[in-house]
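Hi L., both proteins are below.
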Amino acid sequence: MTILEITIRTIAGFVTLYILARILGKKLISQMTFFDFVAGITIGTLTGAIITTKGLMAVKGLYALALFTLLAIVLDVIALKAFRGRKILNDEPTIVIKDGKFLGQGMGRARLNLDQLLMQLRKKNIFYLDEVEIAFLETDGTVSVLKKPENMTVTHKDMKIDSPSRGLAQTFIIDGQVLENSLLAAGKDMEWVETTLKTNGIDDVREVTIAQIDVQGKVFIDQRKDQVDL
């Protein structure tokens, strides 16, 4: 293949892959099922083959890529709309711990060994099995845990402490630039920004890395000079 042909194929493959990825929708890596993972790898492999395989016509390759993506979308729709289809396509969570005891049958079905399960528990700050009432291996490979009541974290509600919400933080300055929409949402104006900066000993907005305000009016400002070198 000539450089021009490789360039054209690469651009076509990149654009097609980007469009198909947007069509497939947003899904966090941690939320992907095993099939989602395999489908993503397959789509990437097909794109690579379209770009580098000399004997493969680009149009046919792009058709195969679009068809595979369409099939993946169809399966996603079936899983979304039909409960039975979802159970068949995505499987269902598996109980791996109950009342502090490993369930060998569930772990065997999930092909999960003790070391892997203990690692997942440590990531959730659980170091003792007797703290666990029940644990599920989810279809995306993560472990969900319900602690026994006596091991649950005490909340402000449990202690009858009134904790007013800070609401959604409005970031009104990023990299020295004032975000007018966020400022408007917070019910503030430029005059307030200038006054707030001066109160904090800041003469130039460009000195600010980020500034936020919560619904209670509490302001957080991080200056460039405050950044820590690792």
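That was the first. Here is the second:
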Amino acid sequence: MEEVEEIVIVGAGVSGLATALGLHRKGIRSLVLESSDSLRAAGFAILTWPNAWRALDALGVGDLLRRDHIRLERHVIKSATTGATMSELPLTGQDMEHETRCLKRNLLLQALVKDLPPGCIRYSSKIVSIEKAGNLKLLHLADGSTIKTKVLVGCDGLNSVVANWLGFRQPTFSGRFACRGLIEDPQNPIMKRHIMEYFLGEGFRFGFSPCNDETLCWFFTWSPSNRDMKFT
């Protein structure tokens, strides 16, 4: 089976859904292809700064997300060994110039999907190869079908099939490892609305920031030793 689409976006993550919603707001139809069988709402939280909120407002989802995420008031960096404050930056003012919040990824995806038209996202649609045919791109899917498109947008993450087809360089190691997660405790409301970072020295750093009064996002990052690299 072969079909023709004006615009195909590969990947239903944050960037793919934001692109589709932006086009939809302008009255332009697109098709999002997602290899998973449903929206992948896994993940933790994303620290969003003023530019992100300008983009979310332009997409029409800013106010919806503000309802579930508190505005952060300060960014504090401390030494974990001495407790001394190394830096402190206020994030509030009379306007929204420094608006910063920590967004739960699943709520961000749900907000982006909410106003997309039915049929905009097609799940279980894994692209196995891409070829060019004149001004069109031929997308060959794992189920044997083919989609022709005039515009192809790659938002398919680290191991992007679109980037590989375009000949982009393979991802390289950044030189750091990181772990992160969420803690939810409705019985003990979070009091401080601060981004907190602690430096331990020798490349070790950890911190946390609240998403709302019940949810805290934490992270830990370090520069790996040769021993660490053996386990990757």
